[in-house]
Design goal:
heterodimer, A: alpha/beta, six-stranded mixed beta sheet, four-stranded antiparallel beta sheet, disordered C terminus, B: mainly alpha, MetI-like fold, 11 helices
Chain lengths: 262, 264
């Protein structure tokens, strides 16, 4: 069942210089329920603009985004976003627990429901002892875990992630990747994950959508039939992984030959 | 032990200056600079505690009233204008003019409509103290991080929740900076309005002492005003530190009291 449809999405802006800049041109893709889809593309190609249009933060110039059949107009209720810059999306004047609870307070839930969801989310990301801490007392990886906890406490069916591990060191990143896969499986959510890291995209995804340079559209789709659950050592030692990785890399480098073009 | 040493270091220069003045004034027999012992004598006669209720209390009450109204109206209006662009554009020319107008210039006008009572003084204090708070609040509300606002949108936080949990706290460092400036302005205008037209108050006392050549009394009044300003500032810094503890933490500064805060 398709939960997310993006159909002929186009977005242009009026630049300060007065000229029209087209960030996205006729972009189309679908995401099925429970899928883990990664979007990769060269820097500046419009990934963040795409995410803003899909999440309803920005209206498309043309084309349409649908979540479970309903046209997106403002963020749909079942969608949660994890932003790249955790220090600017977490509220520094609130503790970890308060940050996670904030969206829940306006969902019309009972106190006990809110506490339950918050507790589960905090434990799911492994921050049980840090509830009363403030975000700035935690490391970068931990802060991003708070942002993820906030998103899953909200009980979304779709998680949109905008390069969430880009500001985190490489070792922490591998921990967070595995944490995310664990959460994805346990909570049965659909994930749309934007990244510039090719290795990460293949490691995580069922499918990798490769974006074009600006004005961007989907250049290539790479299916990732690697075995699950993924493992940082075993999966990355698999020759199939290296092969898929090169496919994505070449697609980004515009040297594809004999690839499936959609 | 370290705090005592710190305190001693801070006190060294002021105590030294006062001692130097004391030594000089005892010998100099100047009319304008009476001896230190004379000033201390008059200070304890007047301010401990004879004229506290007739003069000091009314002054402080006026200052707090004018300042308090400025804080409430300044923050409310500033948030409104900061969050509603059309309102801001309409209000901006008036605000720019009024903040540039030196507040004492309005005193004759205020006397005309309100006489020389408390209402006049509170109004004068208010008209001067309002602008830094209003402008800083507006500025703070307009500078909320876009990612934070996006986050609030994606989680469907209603407008009142956005205001209370995102905009107001995010703007609070700037708001408090404005309130600090306004505090100084409020004290100055309290003194000025009392000197221009009043029958009581510390400012009035200083001026009338000068006119009746009670110079030691005049100096005692000046000292009281200095103490008032100093205490007000310290109280403000304490409150600010409590309210902005997260801000210092988020910017990597020490959050607890073991390091001295730079007094800007």
């Amino acid at each position: 069942m398709t939960v997310l449809e993006v159909e002929s999405l186009s977005k242009s802006f009026l630049a300060p210089s007065g000229e029209h800049v087209t960030a996205i041109q006729e972009l189309t893709f679908d995401v099925a329920a429970g899928e883990f889809v990664c979007i990769v593309g060269p820097s500046g190609c419009g990934k963040t603009t795409l995410l803003k249009c899909v999440s309803g933060l920005m209206a498309p110039s043309q084309g349409v985004v649908r979540v479970r059949g309903a046209v997106v107009d403002g963020t749909p209720d079942e969608l949660a976003v994890v932003f790249q810059d955790y220090s600017r999306s977490l509220l520094p004047w609130m503790s970890v627990e308060q940050n996670i609870q904030l969206p829940l307070r306006y969902k019309g839930l009972s106190r006990s429901e809110i506490d339950r969801l918050t507790g589960e989310a905090i434990n799911a990301v492994g921050l049980g002892e840090f509830e009363a801490h403030y975000p700035w007392q935690l490391s970068g990886g931990m802060q991003q875990r708070v942002a993820i906890a906030r998103a899953i406490a909200y009980e979304p069916s779709i998680l949109l992630m905008d390069e969430p591990f880009a500001s985190v060191d490489a070792q922490t990143r591998t921990d967070l990747e595995d944490l995310l896969l664990d959460i994805w499986r346990r909570f049965e959510i659909t994930v749309l994950f934007v990244t510039h890291d090719i290795d990460e995209s293949v490691y995580l995804a069922d499918r990798v959508l490769v974006l074009d340079r600006r004005p961007t559209s989907i250049r290539t789709v790479v299916e990732v039939p690697l075995e699950r659950p993924r493992d940082q050592l075993k999966t990355k030692a698999d020759p199939a992984y290296a092969d898929l990785r090169s496919q994505v890399f070449r697609a980004i480098r515009r040297q594809e030959e004999g690839f499936e073009d959609r | 032990m370290r705090r005592l040493r710190h305190l001693a270091q801070e006190m060294m220069v002021p105590v030294g200056l006062v001692a130097a003045f004391g030594l000089w004034s005892a010998r100099a027999e100047s009319f304008y600079f009476p001896s230190l012992t004379r000033i201390v004598e008059r200070f304890s006669d007047v301010w401990l505690f004879d004229r506290v209720v007739p003069d000091l209390v009314p002054s402080v009450v006026r200052m707090i009233s004018g300042y308090g109204i400025a804080v409430i109206l300044g923050i409310a209006t500033g948030l409104l204008c900061g969050c509603l662009p059309t309102l801001r554009v309409g209000v901006d020319p008036i605000v720019q003019f009024m903040r540039a107008l030196p507040s004492p210039a309005l005193i004759p006008f205020v006397i005309l409509i309100l006489g020389i009572g408390d209402a006049m003084k509170v109004t004068v204090i208010f008209t001067g103290a309002l602008w830094p708070i209003l402008l800083n609040t507006m500025d703070g509300a307009m500078s909320v991080d876009e990612t934070m606002l996006d986050m609030a949108k994606t989680y469907h936080l209603p407008a009142r929740a956005r205001l209370r949990h995102v905009v107001l706290p995010a703007a609070s460092p700037r708001i408090l900076a404005g309130m600090r400036t306004s505090l100084s302005i409020a004290i100055v205008l309290m003194v000025v309005s009392e000197m221009v037209a009043s029958t009581n108050g510390v400012g009035y006392f200083v001026l009338s002492s000068q006119r009746s050549f009670a110079i030691p009394d005049m100096w005692s009044g000046i000292i009281v005003l200095g103490i008032l300003g100093y205490v007000a500032n310290i109280a403000f810094v304490r409150v600010e530190r409590q309210l902005l503890y997260w801000h210092r933490g988020a910017n990597g500064l020490a959050v607890d009291d073991t390091s001295r805060k730079l007094q800007i």
